[in-house]
Design a protein that fits this description.
With 292 residues, this protein is mainly β. It starts with a helix and ends with a strand.
Length: 292
């Protein structure tokens, strides 16, 4: 409880700084469309195609969000036991996944896995460094400029204060980036316009409180990223659980995966809210209309 209070106070301080003009959200976003999808974890886009990850599935869509292909058995070919996919990213028609064995809020056997963007089948796995302190992987992002793969951790632990970095070309571990202040319950991550963006399941659906996206400024200290509130998602259909995100640079849009209907306990669906008999997964598409 004490840690949660400190996190809230730190983020409130950042919001106060915004009002003083010392730091601010990068863009303004306007909701343009909503698409139902077959997956609850992550989304990414490249060259007119979209990919969505479920906890145990991968799907590919065309530019009109028509289903092209699906892999319902994505864990074939692993030497370690895995059962969970988080938020995903794509680079040069290769999908980057943070894969792990996840149960009751804890992860193990974490791996960076690369899949073919067309067949949705496993191609290779990065060697994971077990001594980094990373205990879970909720999301992954590729930065082609710095040749870095970033990984997030969801659990409420000191390990989730960092983003973990691997070399895009060699797969070698590059170190970890401390977030300041530390956002809570990280779900997804994306690179855009020289910054990192993370989504956090820090609202309370029971109280109709929205989840948030934060921008991480990585232009300063190479070991510390300044965390800045970017957007509260108070415009979704119904509050639920925020998940992965991506930026469609061709259309200058933010794509956000949001789940509604299921009650989430320790990161896993446990029953449904009144009026729902299944969880609904939707990608919310936002136009980026101006730079602040």
């Amino acid at each position: 409880m004490q840690k949660k209070l400190l996190v809230i106070l730190s983020l409130v301080s950042s919001i106060m700084l915004i009002g003083c003009g010392k730091t601010k959200a990068g863009f303004k976003y306007e909701l343009a469309d909503v698409h139902p999808v077959a997956g609850r974890q992550g989304v990414c886009s490249e060259k007119g195609c979209y990919w969505v990850s479920g906890s145990t599935t991968l799907t590919k869509y065309d530019s009109s969000w028509n289903l092209i292909s699906e892999n319902t058995e994505p864990f074939e070919g692993y030497t370690l036991e895995v059962n969970h996919i988080g938020d995903i990213d794509v680079y040069n028609n290769e999908l980057y996944l943070g894969v792990e064995y996840f149960s009751d809020g804890e992860g193990k056997n974490i791996q960076v896995a690369v899949y073919d963007g067309d067949t949705l089948e496993l191609k290779r796995v990065f060697p994971f460094r077990s001594d980094t302190g990373q205990l879970e992987c909720s999301g992954i992002a590729v930065d082609p400029v710095s040749r870095t793969v970033y990984m997030t951790s969801w659990i409420d632990d000191e390990s989730s204060s960092y983003l973990y970095m691997y070399d895009l070309d060699t797969g070698d571990y590059k170190g970890k980036l401390k977030m300041d202040p530390v956002p809570q319950w990280l779900q997804g991550i994306a690179c855009f316009n020289g910054s990192l963006y993370v989504t956090c399941d820090d609202g309370n659906a029971d109280n109709d409180e929205p989840d948030h996206m934060y921008r991480i400024d990585i232009s300063g200290d190479k070991d510390i990223g300044k965390v800045i509130p970017e957007k509260a998602f108070d415009d979704v259909i119904k509050q639920g659980e925020i998940e992965g995100l991506t930026f469609d640079e061709d259309h200058r849009q933010l794509l956000l995966l949001y789940n509604r209907g299921a009650k989430i306990v320790a990161g896993m669906p446990k029953g449904f809210y009144e009026g729902y008999s299944e969880e609904i997964h939707e990608v919310f598409v936002y136009d980026i209309v101006e730079e602040r």
